[in-house]
UniProtKB/TrEMBL annotation:
Location in the cell: Secreted
UniProt entry tagged with the keyword Secreted: yes
Family: Belongs to the major royal jelly protein family.
Protein name per its UniProtKB record: Bee-milk protein
Source organism of the structure: Leptidea sinapis
The entry's keywords: Secreted, Signal
SUPFAM superfamilies the UniProt entry points to: Calcium-dependent phosphotriesterase
Length: 444
C-alpha cells in the first residue's frame, strides 16, 4: 500500500501539469474579536448569564469553522465554564462591524448545557456536498478544568441545512468502542461515497486513533497506530511570541485527498493526518480505514499501510485539502500558513509558505472554503487560552481570508471505475490488505 499511495501522487501530478494556476491573493483580516459576544434573545438574558457565570467572555474560544450559503459556522468548545453556546453562525460578508456577535445554532435551546438532546461540546464540524452538517459532540465539558464533566454520551450529530427546520439526528457512539471519560472527538473529514463515511480523529490521551463512521447503517469502528498517532516528546513544547506551553496532544489534524483509480481500477482516496505534538505528516488510503477487520486486529494492524510523508518546519493543528489536492495547514511556532500541492511534488520538497506574520498569525487552527474561491482560517492564540492568560484588552481571535479560486475537497471530482471492475477490485483490495497484514505479523 505504501507504493500505491506514492504511485497515485505521480500519476495525478502528470494530469495536473497542464492546468492553469488559480489566481492567489494575500490573507486579509475580515473579522477580529477581543472577546466573543452573542445575539441574546433579550438584554436581560445576557445580564443573567453573566451574573450566574454561565457566560464568562474570556472563556469563549473560537476553534472550528465551516461555510454554507453565505454563513460561517463557528465552533466554541466548552473547555472551560461560562460558554453559553458551543456552535454559532456569523455572516460571511462584513457589515458595519469587524467583531460581529455570534448567533447560536440551531438555537439557544439546542445549546443548553446538560440537555442530552442539545449540543454540549463541539470541537469541529464538516458540511458535505449535499448540505448535511456533520457535528462532533464530545458530550464532556470542562476539559481544561480539574473536573471534566461527561454530561452526555459522545455523539455524531447530523443536520440537513437544506431544511429550514434544522432538526438534529443524534448518533451516540457505542461505549464498547468509545470511552466517554477519555475520548476527544477532534476533527473529521467526510467522504460522500458508498453510503457516506466520516473519518474522525480521536486525540484521547490514553487511546488515540481514527474513528470511522458509516452513515448508511450507522456502523462505527476505531483504528489505532501508536507510532503515527501519538505525540512525541520533542514536539510537545510550543514557543510562540515569548510564551511557552507544553501540549503533548495526540492525533489531531486530518484531511482528505481527491479520488483516484488504483492499479486494480478501484476508486480510492488518501487520508492525511498528524498528531498536534509532531512535525511529521502521515498518509493512509481510505480503503484501509474502511476495513473493519483491521480495527478488530488492534493497535499495529495499520502499521504496514501508513506512509510517513516527511517532516514539517513546525507543529500543525488543523488542515484542509481543496478540490484539486492542495493541502493548506499551519506551522504554529513559525506563525506561518503553508500549502502543499499533493499532485505535483513529494511532501519533502513541495511545501510552500504562503503567509507569515508573528502578530496576526498566532496559532492557526481550522480552515474552510466558500463557493466563490475563497479560503478562511481561524487564528485563536490557543497557547494563551490553555494557560489562562487571555487578556480581554487584546485581539485574541481573528478570521483571515484569501482567494485561491478553488473549493473544498468535498466538491472534488467523482471518478467512475471501468465497467465491470468495481466489485472485483474492491474484493481484491480487501483480500490483499488481509494478506499483507498476515505477512506483517509473521515478520514481526
Amino acid at each position: 500500500m505504501r507504493m500505491l499511495v506514492l504511485f497515485t501522487v505521480v500519476v495525478a501530478a502528470a494530469a495536473q501539469n497542464d492546468k492553469p494556476k488559480p489566481h492567489r491573493e494575500q490573507f486579509r483580516v475580515i473579522y477580529e474579536w477581543q472577546t466573543i459576544d452573542f445575539e441574546w434573545e433579550t438584554p436581560e438574558d445576557r445580564e443573567t448569564y453573566l451574573n450566574e457565570t454561565k457566560y464568562i467572555p474570556q472563556n469563549v474560544l473560537i476553534s472550528g469553522i465551516n461555510y454554507y450559503e453565505d454563513k460561517l459556522f463557528l465552533t466554541l468548545p466548552r473547555m472551560l465554564t461560562g460558554v453559553p453556546a458551543t456552535l454559532a453562525t456569523i455572516p460571511t460578508n462584513q457589515n458595519d462591524t469587524t467583531a460581529p456577535k455570534l448567533k447560536p445554532f440551531p438555537s439557544w435551546s439546542d445549546n443548553k448545557v446538560g440537555d442530552c438532546a442539545a449540543l454540549q461540546f463541539v470541537q469541529n464540524i464538516e458540511i458535505d456536498r449535499y448540505g448535511v452538517m456533520w457535528i462532533l459532540d464530545n458530550g464532556r465539558i470542562g476539559t481544561l478544568t480539574h473536573r471534566p464533566d461527561p454530561k452526555c454520551p459522545p455523539s455524531i450529530v447530523l443536520i440537513d441545512l437544506k431544511s429550514d427546520k434544522y432538526e438534529m439526528e443524534r448518533i451516540p457512539l457505542p461505549l464498547d468502542i468509545i470511552n466517554p471519560n477519555t475520548t476527544y472527538l477532534n476533527d473529521l473529514v467526510v467522504d460522500n461515497r458508498d453510503g457516506d463515511y466520516a473519518y474522525i480523529t480521536d486525540n484521547s490521551a490514553v487511546d488515540p486513533g481514527i474513528i470511522v463512521f458509516r452513515r448508511s447503517d450507522k456502523k462505527i469502528w476505531k483504528l489505532r497506530d501508536s507510532k503515527s498517532m501519538s505525540s512525541t516528546t520533542e514536539a510537545a513544547i510550543f514557543r510562540i511570541n515569548g510564551t511557552t506551553v507544553n501540549l503533548p496532544v495526540n492525533i489531531d489534524g486530518i484531511a482528505l485527498g481527491p479520488q483516484f483509480l488504483t492499479e486494480d481500477n478501484q476508486v480510492d482516496r488518501t487520508v492525511y493526518y498528524c498528531p498536534l505534538a509532531s512535525i511529521h505528516l502521515y498518509a493512509i488510503n481510505a480503503s484501509i480505514l474502511r476495513n473493519e477487520s483491521l480495527a478488530e486486529a488492534g493497535d499495529g494492524s495499520l502499521r504496514p499501510y501508513v506512509v510517513d510523508l516527511g517532516m514539517k518546519a513546525s507543529q500543525t493543528d488543523g488542515m484542509k485539502m481543496d478540490s484539486t489536492g492542495t493541502l493548506f495547514y499551519g506551522l504554529i511556532t513559525n506563525s506561518t500558513i503553508a500549502e502543499w500541492n499533493s499532485t505535483a511534488a513529494d511532501f519533502s520538497v513541495g511545501q510552500r509558505t504562503i503567509a507569515r506574520d508573528p502578530n496576526y498569525i498566532q496559532w492557526v487552527d481550522r480552515f474552510t472554503f466558500d463557493d466563490r474561491g475563497n479560503i478562511y482560517v481561524v487564528i485563536n492564540r490557543l497557547f494563551n487560552f490553555v494557560k489562562n492568560q487571555v487578556s480581554t484588552s487584546d485581539v485574541n481571535y481573528r478570521i483571515l481570508r484569501s482567494t485561491t479560486g478553488l473549493k473544498s475537497y468535498v466538491h472534488g471530482e467523482d471518478l467512475i471505475p471501468p465497467s465491470g471492475h468495481h466489485d472485483a477490485a474492491a474484493t481484491q483490495t480487501v483480500a490483499a490488505s488481509l494478506i499483507l497484514l498476515a505477512i506483517a505479523h509473521i515478520l514481526v
